[in-house]
TrEMBL record:
Coiled coil: none annotated. It comes from Echinostoma caproni. The keyword Repeat applies. SMART domains: CUB. Disulfide bonds join 10-37, 133-160. It comes from the Eukaryota. This is CUB domain-containing protein. Pfam families: CUB (PF00431). PROSITE patterns: CUB.
Length: 274
């Protein structure tokens, strides 16, 4: 993963939550001039994290125009992103939706020398789910063949959630090979959702019924989140199977590029040698 160059006084742009320990203090040294520091905090695959400020002085008022801190879970910093400033410790952001937290710290020259904050970032305990759901964490590197859900026939109203994680930098295609979730295509009580950002809302891929649905779009990262919701009426018969494959088109593109490079080098060698 690459990070853009930024003022060394900001500190490390990449922060490993697995080895952070204790508090995270920003910036590394007192800033000078107009400076923007950006950070990517990454924890363990499949985990979610809670950030909480323990010290905070960013600007002098609660009007966050020039000096502020933003916390994002999708990499975007816009008008809807958590944004705080001032001299009192703000309420904590919501828990992260994945194992990645993005932070933007903007300082003007007027306040750069005193702008600072400290935060602790703790892992959010995964909610216990029905053992019949099966493993909540699925390793795509070792999965092999089909993925069948649930592990055993469910009973009662049950929600099963899964985090499927593949190799870093890869994208994956999920395709259903068997599907029976509910009895109709009205997805109110029994359904499956597939998400690439950890969120399950009205815009998330959502399917139900007894026909194999069209496949979701290609994942945007190496992580796929899946939710299976079952009512007691259909819990015992709700099931699906799917294959999850690494994006072959991307692999083919890389192989083709390498082959073309090799061919070009061979041709140049023949030209100069022969």
């Amino acid at each position: 993963m690459q990070f853009h160059a930024q003022d060394p006084k900001c500190g490390d742009a990449a922060v490993d939550l697995n080895t952070l320990g204790g508090s995270w203090k920003v910036p590394k040294e007192a800033l000078t001039g107009d400076v923007t520091c950006e950070y990517t905090l990454t924890g363990a695959d499949g985990k979610k994290y809670q950030m909480e400020f323990t010290a905070f002085k960013v600007g002098t008022t609660d009007v966050c125009t020039d000096d502020y801190v933003q916390v994002s879970f999708d990499g975007k910093f816009d008008d809807n992103t958590y944004k705080k400033c001032g001299t009192t410790i703000p309420e904590k952001p919501s828990a992260s939706t994945t194992n990645v937290i993005k932070v933007k710290f903007a300082s003007t020259s007027a306040n750069a020398g005193t702008n600072t904050f400290t935060a602790k970032i703790t892992e959010v305990p995964a909610p216990a789910q029905d053992p019949k759901c099966g493993d909540a964490a699925v390793d795509l590197n070792t999965l092999g063949g089909s993925w069948k859900v649930p592990k055993e026939a469910l009973t009662g109203d049950v929600t099963c959630e899964y985090t499927l994680t593949g190799a870093d930098g890869k994208k994956y295609q999920m395709e259903f090979t068997n599907f029976k979730v509910g009895t109709t295509d009205v997805c109110t009580g029994d359904y499956v959702q597939v998400s690439f950002d950890g969120k399950f809302d009205d815009n998330t891929y959502k399917k139900c019924g007894t026909m194999i649905p069209e496949k979701p779009s290609l994942s945007t990262t190496n992580v796929i989140n899946v939710k299976l919701v079952s009512t007691s009426v259909n819990a015992a018969t709700n099931t699906f199977a799917a294959t999850i494959k690494e994006n072959s088109k991307e692999a083919l593109r890389v192989c083709t590029a390498l082959l073309l490079s090799f061919t070009l080098i061979s041709s140049l060698c023949e030209f100069f040698i022969g």
